[in-house]
Hints:
The protein is α/β, with parallel strands linked by helices.
Amino acid sequence: MTSKRIPVPRQILDGSVIAIGRGLDKGSVVQIGEGLAAGGVRAFEITFGRDDAVEAIAALDRRFGSGDELLVGAGTILSIEDAERALEAGAKFLVMPVTDPNLVAWAAERGVPAFPGAMTPTEVFAGWAAGAAGIKLFPSSVTGPAFIRELHGPFPEIPVVPTGGVTVDTAPALITAGAVAVGLGGWLTGDGDPAGIAARGRRIVAVIRAIRETGRGE
């Protein structure tokens, strides 16, 4: 078990939502970030896989700086080289689709919150032991709320963030089961419209807040 661990950033815990931007136009990514912030979403993950992901992160970093309004991170990180590029551009957290203990430990040693992707208890524990801030349960459409509840038996201290196919309809059960946050991609950011993103952001944040405060969704 590593002695070096960076906690889940407060912006992720506050809003309980990580917005995921995949294939967004770099020319409108700042406006999309502003829409998220207006909707109360506090964390925005830009996925790698496109050549302009680094440029998008850099543009968001110029607008949102330290992350008090919106924390910008990088997703689909599969190598230290990609991690370095993301951090140089201004990413404040890293998300991976798989569990790579070396990459997680590398991030933790540099004070960067890392969220490795996991689908089995072995992967969950391996990521946590390497120094993960939390675990990205992926794909959530396969694991689901029951898996989160079962994980809390042996691993009550591990923060989990289910991702993959999450919507406003499926998020409440995931939060109720014990997730500290959810990752939302297509449902939240898919159309790239800042006004619609702000409206959906307000809706999902309100639903999760209601669960946190009363134990019930809207």
